[in-house]
Amino acid sequence: MRFQKLIQLSAALMLSALWPGPAKAATGGEPAAVVQVDVAACLAAVTADDMDRAGPACAAVIDNEKTAKPDLIKALVARGGLFARHDQIDRAIADDSRALLLDPTLADVFNARGELWLKKGDKPKAVQDFGAALRIDPNHEKAKANHRAMARELERIGAQMAVAGKPSFNCAGVRRPVEKAICANRELADLDREVYAANARVLREARNAGEAKTLQREQDDFIARRNAGFGRPGYDLKKAMQERLQRLNGVDGY
Question: Can you tell me the distance from the alpha carbon of 131 to that of 191, in angstroms, rounded to the nearest whole number?
Answer without folding.
Answer: 36
